[in-house]
């Protein structure tokens, strides 16, 4: 059994394994990079790294298409519940914790990220949604993914890797709001992952980092991590 990973543009990813699917950061119809055929995806579980609109823009309509769990930091899931989503579906957790989703066949550990997290309501009110986070997602097929979320480079990435041993990292490379390719290459060195999937680039003009630049930075550091560069809607199997 293998895990199929599909990039839906920006920071949105769809994982499929054992007949189950997991959607990370549902920004679909509002995402200029997301192919239209994925706008109505109905995953078995949803993971949310933080509350910015370019990561939860389609959280509520996606939640209506599925009855599965929604996992995120406690502050964010509490807010989602206040919007009418069934509380029994909400898996609020915090950094350092692990939850097991037996029906999906995964264990999810929430890890630190360096960013911010809030949502602007229609009336302009800014709502604090807890700390930003990343995840280490371990599938029963043996694959383990470090989904860094939106983050800067930080030294404790090394400890995340040593403790949880992911074999693949999904790292932002766009710059401006997150790491650039040089910092992402250093993150690969810190984590020692065999493969990296670049994310959070190319959506807007501000996000200037490219997979080619990441490859060049890895080469200059003599880091052997393989870059798995996907086009929006493209997939890779692990």
Alpha carbon gyration radius: 16 Å
How many strands in all? 16
The gross shape turns out to be: globular
Which strands sit side by side, in order, in the main sheet? 6-5-4-3-2-1-16
Q: What distance lies between the first and last C-alpha atoms, to the nearest angstrom?
A: 9 Å
Please outline the major beta sheet.
Answer: 7 strands, mixed
Binned strand content: 25-35%
- Which CATH class? Alpha Beta
Q: What is the CATH superfamily classification? A: Ribonuclease Z/Hydroxyacylglutathione hydrolase-like
Explain this structure to me?
The chain has 238 residues and is α/β, with parallel strands linked by helices. The protein has six helices and 16 strands. It has one domain: Metallo-beta-lactamase, Chain A (4-Layer Sandwich). Helix 5 (181-191) crosses helix 6 (211-221). The longest helix has 11 residues, at 181-191. The termini are close together.
Layout: helices, strands, pairs:
Elements: E1 4-7, E2 13-17, E3 20-24, E4 45-47, H1 53-56, H2 59-64, E5 70-73, H3 74-82, E6 90-93, E7 98-101, E8 106-112, E9 118-120, E10 126-128, E11 133-139, E12 144-147, H4 157-164, E13 168-172, H5 181-191, E14 195-199, H6 211-221, E15 226-227, E16 235-237
Parallel strand pairs: 3-4, 4-5, 5-6, 12-13, 13-14, 14-15
Antiparallel strand pairs: 1-2, 1-16, 2-3, 7-8, 8-11, 9-10, 11-12
Helix pairs in contact: 5-6
């Amino acid at each position: 059994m293998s895990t199929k990973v599909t990039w839906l543009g920006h920071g949105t990813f769809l994982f499929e394994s054992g007949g189950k699917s997991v959607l990370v950061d549902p920004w679909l119809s509002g995402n200029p990079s997301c192919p239209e055929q994925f706008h109505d995806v109905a995953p078995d579980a949803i993971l949310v790294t933080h509350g910015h609109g370019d990561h939860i823009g389609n959280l509520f309509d996606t939640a209506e298409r599925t009855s599965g769990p929604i996992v995120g930091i406690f502050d964010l899931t509490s807010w989602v519940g206040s919007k009418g989503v069934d509380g029994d579906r909400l898996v609020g957790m915090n950094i350092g914790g692990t939850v097991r989703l037996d029906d999906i066949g995964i264990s999810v550990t929430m890890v630190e990220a360096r960013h911010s997290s809030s949502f602007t309501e229609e009336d302009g009110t800014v709502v604090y949604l807890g700390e930003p986070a990343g995840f280490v997602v371990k599938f029963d097929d043996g694959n383990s993914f470090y989904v860094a979320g939106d983050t800067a480079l930080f030294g404790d990435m090394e400890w995340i890797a040593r403790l949880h041993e992911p074999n693949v990292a999904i790292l932002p490379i766009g710059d401006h709001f997150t790491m650039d390719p040089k910092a992402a290459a250093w993150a690969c060195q810190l984590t020692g992952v065999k493969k990296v999937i670049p994310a959070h680039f190319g959506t807007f003009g501000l996000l200037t980092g490219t997979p080619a630049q990441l490859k060049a930075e890895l080469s200059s550091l003599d880091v052997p991590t393989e870059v798995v560069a996907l086009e929006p809607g493209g997939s890779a199997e692990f």
